[in-house]
Amino acid sequence: MLTDEIRARLEQLNRERLPPVAPERKRSTREPSPTLCSLDDLLDSQVTVSEAGSHYRLRKPLARFWPHLPDRLDPTGGCEVRKMDSHPELVGFEQAFPDRAMFLDLETCGFAGSPIFLIGLVYSDGGRLVVDQLLARDYTEERAILDTLWRIAAGHDVLVTFNGKSFDWPMVRDRTFFHRLNDGGSEPAVHFDLLHHARRKWKRVLPNCRLQTLERYVCGRLRRGDIPGSQIPAAYHQYVRSGDARQMVSVLHHNALDLVTLAQLAVRITAGFERAVA
């Protein structure tokens, strides 16, 4: 029982009543997740299936990326080229283009030895040049895109790359050996590496012979808003982790523009080459 003395002390301690305190609401540390966009949401593509597995494949006319593409690309520039005076790679390209020449540009997960996730190709299909992009949706599909590449390469005599003798084609060979896919018997007979011929033709008049430098000064095109090549591996790793394909659209566009530049440079290098080195 409370005595009068205890009651008085309690009243003295609690003369001013504190307002009731509402329980504090816990703040969520989870950020609202953005809506993910899959490849199917963003791209008009198809899935290719073979014994080696499956992968994404995007095929579009080269003219989609090169609006001023001539109806007929003539590597000789309308001139009769004296074959005995030309470099063997130029002769091979002139004889094979467009029906039996294949342009190639890779996007990889890093330096030499890392997986290939995108193989970009340009070749003639039904009388028109097409961009054919073989995309691995994750690291396990590298085997499948390499298998498709070898099937396409078997029908072409000339391979056209930019620095491909040092990087792209050794990468293809190494990753093919890793997956035990091909013994190299179906390789194109001629490898036309544009970098070496561009240096012979323009190194004294251009700041350098990097691909986008040649694209600007020789092809007359300047890219804006393009994803830098150095950021492409990180963009792919992020896509594999998250499933969000929005950055991959930029990567695919970058690769397609590189292929357009390869085609333009090949025609410019072979047209009147003898006059440039005479």
Question: What structural keywords apply?
Answer:
elongated; 7-stranded mixed sheet; 278 residues; alpha/beta; disordered C terminus; Nucleotidyltransferase, domain 5
Fold and architecture overview:
With 278 residues, this protein is of the alpha/beta class. It has one domain: 2-Layer Sandwich (Nucleotidyltransferase, domain 5). Helix content is 39%, strand content 17%. It contains ten helices and seven strands. It has a seven-stranded mixed sheet, sandwiched between helices. Helix 6 packs across helix 9 (246-270). The radius of gyration is 30 Å and the shape is elongated.
Order of helices and strands: HHEEHEEEHEHEHHHHH
Shape summary? elongated
What top-tier CATH class fits best? Alpha Beta
Q: Give a quick account of the main beta sheet: strands, pairing sense, barrel closure.
A: 7 strands, mixed
**Which architecture does the CATH hierarchy give at level 2?**
2-Layer Sandwich
Mean model confidence by pLDDT: 82
Query: How many independent structural domains?
Result: 1
The gyration radius over C-alpha positions equals 30 Å
The CATH topology turns out to be Nucleotidyltransferase, domain 5
Termini separation comes to: 119 Å
- Secondary structure: number of strands: 7
Percentage beta strand: 15-25%
Low-confidence segments:
77-85, 272-278
